[in-house]
Amino acid sequence: MLEVVATCLVITALLAYVNHRFIGLPTAIGVMVAALLMSLGLVGLDWAGIDYGLRDYEESLLRSIDFSDVLMQGMLSLLLFAGALHVDLSELKAYRWQVGALAVVSTVLSTLAVGFGSWLVLPWVGLDLPLIYCLLFGALISPTDPIAVMGILKTAGAPKELELVIAGESLFNDGVGVVLFSLLLGMLASGSAPTVGHGLELLAREAGGGLLFGLVLGYATFWLLKSVDNYQVEVMLTLASVTGGYALASHLHVSGPLAMVVVGLIVGNGGRALAMSDTTRHYVDLFWELIDEILNAVLFVLIGMEVLLVSFSINILLAAGVAMAVTLLGRALTVGLPVSLLHGPFRLPKGSGWVLTWGGLRGGISVALALSLPPGSERNIVLALTYCIVVLSILGQGLTIGWVVRKTVLGAKHSD
């Protein structure tokens, strides 16, 4: 295990250096591009007969890492807490209904739209995927990833309220997407469709229980932080709260992702303002900023390297293009259109619907969920489609979202 961790960190550090010195892309996107090019380069060298076993070594390294387990049971809790830590709760409260509607209602509708849409159009390119797998694909591809896009939005000068809604939606829809995926996966395992009552019960227990558990854990952590003034102890308390809390949430069968978001909001707002000295606040912020940067870099490097373990064909690549179009259309219908039509209730600048549609990047959680599907040909198809969409989303949308912001929201503001 130590060798695996060391190898991952060394590769990530070297690729981050290469990106910083020679590529110049945002860190998350840059290291993924570098890892993807490295992996494809090894494939090319292998075909040319001059690989020297490097491709085999990378494949064995990747097979020794359970990507789904590493992300879902390890990285995700830390990333969600770190992301929520710097969200201003007073500002988020002002947009709580908008964020809630996008994170819950739009995620459910997107799951259905992408699932049924894929089921209808994939046969056009020669892929017959059962409806339940199409719905699972819809559930795992609907949650969005704020990591790569937030820095670009800031650079592009996006309005603060738009940044807030995108970040809030992304933090909460991860938990909703995981609950929907679990419900559908249970349906696949049992072979029978759950009743509406059972579905609502599971949603209430997982999502509602996760939010409630997060509140209890968040305020318990707040009390502990307030009762001591020692930055080493307080940093350890926040780390213990996240790792221990996520493990306990799993045992209680409530949503760990939602719980960690709530804990992050409580510690990041009440905790930082009322329970920490300036010195402690500085070290807590610095610690979690480093954790966030390091884990994000490792995660995106692993995404880039995973290309070696995905089975591709001409049909799969064609289907990925079709599925990408279906996913974007589903995002536009369930997020972009409501935001554009309900301009008053959402209270966002003109053109925000376009930014929310294009800024809905997919990330590691989608790949992790795809990898957790039962082995079989259907899993291989869903994994390949998911991987292609994640890479296309990060590269295509991530690198052009700044241009979309300038052309839509900022352009509309200047024209007014």
Short description:
The protein is mostly helical and about 425 residues long. The chain contains 19 helices and no strands.
Architecture overview:
Helices cover 81% and strands 0% of the residues. The chain has helices at 2-23, 27-47, 54-63, 67-85, 89-94, 96-121, 131-141, 147-156, 160-190, 196-226, 231-252, 256-274, 278-305, 314-341, 343-346, 352-358, 364-371, 377-397, 401-415. The relative contact order is 0.15.
Give keywords.
single chain, 416 residues, mainly alpha, 0% strand, globular
**Morphology call:** globular
> Kindly, what is the distance between the CA atoms of the first and last residues, rounded to a whole number of angstroms?
58 Å
**Low-pLDDT ranges:** none
Count of DSSP strands = 0
Rg, rounded, reads: 21 Å
The chain-level mean pLDDT equals 89
Order of helices and strands: HHHHHHHHHHHHHHHHHHH
Largest sheet: none
How many helices in DSSP terms?
19
- Helix proportion of residues, in percent? over 70%
Structural class, from secondary structure content?
Answer: mainly alpha
Q: How much strand content do the residues show?
A: under 5%
